[in-house]
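Example for tutorial group B:
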């Protein structure tokens, strides 16, 4: 049963690699020679709108990828924590570290993009308290999804171990021996981030369900797949 649970966690983490199927479009069409100025301007506006729609889709897909990866890593980490020490646990910890660094890189890119573009406007009516709570939940999710992988890396660093990603070097060993105090501190931060993330994810999901079934707005549908702007 434990093997099945761990396998499900790994599968969920890997699902973060899901993305949009590419649809190549030729740059030049035969019919372009027959277009007048008005048709060219209309086609230019349409192409610009498609570029905007793809940018929105890319942003949301990145968010979905980070969400899937973080949920998988939190569940995976909790499953590993419940295991007894041994070679199997050590091997799974290495897998957990490797996936954690990849998910952390996606989370950092998501954080930087959100800092640049800001938060989207709510699609439904919200009270000032609900709006403030939603903003704090979003900020907490962004920060924790970066802080948790970072604290995981620091756990290895303060344990005087190198960090690699599926066998490829990422960070060399920086300390000659384990720094007990720092290792205990970052281990506490890493574990606390995991539990906080699990709690906030549940709160976030409950809020989305409330918008869908009680408020009956498009919040949940936008979280799953944003509508193109028109």
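The residue assignment follows.
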């Amino acid at each position: 049963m434990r093997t099945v649970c761990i396998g499900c966690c790994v599968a969920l983490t890997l699902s973060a690699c899901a993305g949009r199927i590419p649809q190549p479009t030729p740059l030049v069409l035969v019919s372009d020679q027959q277009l007048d100025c008005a048709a060219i301007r209309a086609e230019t506006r349409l192409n610009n709108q498609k570029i905007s729609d793809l940018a929105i889709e890319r942003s949301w897909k990145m968010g979905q990828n980070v969400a899937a990866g973080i949920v998988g890593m939190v569940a995976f980490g909790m499953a590993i924590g419940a295991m007894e020490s041994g070679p199997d646990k050590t091997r799974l910890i290495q897998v957990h570290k490797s996936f954690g660094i990849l998910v952390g890189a996606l989370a950092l890119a998501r954080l930087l993009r959100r800092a640049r573009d800001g938060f989207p406007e709510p699609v439904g009516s919200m009270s000032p308290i609900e709006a403030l709570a939603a903003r704090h939940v979003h900020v907490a999710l962004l920060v924790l999804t970066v802080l948790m992988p970072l604290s995981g890396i620091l756990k290895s660093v303060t344990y005087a171990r190198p960090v690699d990603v599926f066998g490829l070097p990422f960070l060399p060993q920086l300390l000659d021996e384990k720094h007990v105090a720092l290792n205990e501190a970052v281990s506490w931060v890493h574990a606390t981030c995991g539990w906080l993330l699990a709690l906030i994810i549940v709160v976030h999901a409950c809020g989305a369900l409330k918008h869908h079934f009680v408020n009956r707005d498009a919040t949940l549908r936008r979280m799953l797949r944003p509508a193109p702007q028109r």
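The first strand starts at residue 163 and ends at 165. Compare this with the pattern of hydrophobic and polar residues in the output above.
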